[in-house]
Amino acid sequence: MEQTYFRRGFGLKSAIEGALATDYHSRVVDAVKARGYVLTVDDLTFKLAREFGFCYGVDRAVEYAYETHAKFPGRRLFLVGEIIHNPHVNAKLRDMGVECLHRPDRGEFDFGRVMPDDVVILPAFGVTAQDLARLRAIGCVLVDTTCGSVLNVWKRVESYARDGFTALIHGKYYHEETKATASQVTKYPGGKYLVVRDMAEARIVCRYIEAGGDSTEVGRLLEGKASDAFTPERDLARVGVANQTTMLSNESLAIAAEVRSSMARRYGEGALGEHFRNFDTICSATQDRQDAVTKLIAEPLHVMVVIGGYNSSNTTHLAALCQERVTTYHIEDAACIDPASGSILFRPVGTHEEARKDAWLPPGPVTVGVTAGASTPNNKVGETLERIAATRGASLAAALG
């Protein structure tokens, strides 16, 4: 009988290394790193964050997708959603013949075209327990690229549900990873979850934990963000905190501390073990990139450029961190920079629409900080540096030799 579930790769790295290098490598980025992450060209200085771009989980997912293409020639290949939140990478997979399956708003993925002989790639974010069960029922080959950091969160959430604790998840309720994480509680009878987006929503929950009373405010918060038949007076008595791995780590830690304090005030420090749980589920790669950009923006910079998909959670959080200290432009791709007109197309922090800025580089000597989300390949970082230089009439090729 053919094996239908794979998680550990196919041992084909040597067969795909050339394609990966062609699609994602950057000589420019390598050269800037070799110069201590700083490059000066005429009156323009670039400073790269010490950690940026593809993390281990993303690198593994992309590599595994390329291996899958090599492993199953002649088979139809499908991808549930996007492999990662980067339009360039997903476009490359489509060019290779991988068909992306999409979920309509408030709907389910349509697996109607998937047949037992097909191969389906599960993305780095993972899929919901329900979608996995549907795919298993079809009998197709499943190639699971779910990130290990995400799996670690799932284990914690499952343990909460198994022991009768509600999983309070710091995340974006509509994000694929959070949907997949929340679904893990359904493996246990009576498993419950609630998703909070930020500290403001967490404090609504905390007020109810401490004082009880009218659940109207919590009810408004719960709409679309909680498990079925969620009852605050019952399901907020025992809570375990978890997080979407790409959220701001300091906010996740602060929310956990806030919930702990509310539980202690309600039930007493001596009873905390019966009412509150928390484990460190912050992704080390997310933490490293946030730490690196925090150090970078402490230096003198004129502007900061953050590269990555607009729907990439970890990228938007990097942009939010930068905006606190320096004028920041979150761009999806190098093509957002137009050297000829001197303009930049970007998404302002906290908005959902692109904006255009003319003469975005200030005159005179200028220092530009650059970082990229964990889903952004190095070649897109290198192309961005080249376009910024060209905006000032400079050439990186001449500077790098």
What does this structure look like?
- The protein has 401 residues and is of the alpha/beta class.
- It has three domains: 11-55 and 285-400, 4-hydroxy-3-methylbut-2-enyl diphosphate reductase, catalytic domain (Cobalt-precorrin-4 Transmethylase, domain 1); 57-147, Rossmann fold; 149-282, 3-Layer(aba) Sandwich (Cobalt-precorrin-4 Transmethylase, domain 1).
- The chain contains 16 helices and 17 strands.
- The chain has helices spanning 13-24, 27-34, 56-71, 87-95, 129-138, 148-162, 176-183, 199-211, 216-222, 232-235, 249-267, 272-275, 284-297, 313-323, 378-391, 396-400, and strands at 5-6, 38-41, 44-48, 77-80, 98-101, 119-122, 141-144, 166-170, 193-196, 239-243, 276-278, 303-307, 328-331, 337-338, 343-346, 355-358, 366-372.
- The strands form four sheets. Strands 1-7-6-4-5 form a five-stranded parallel β-sheet.
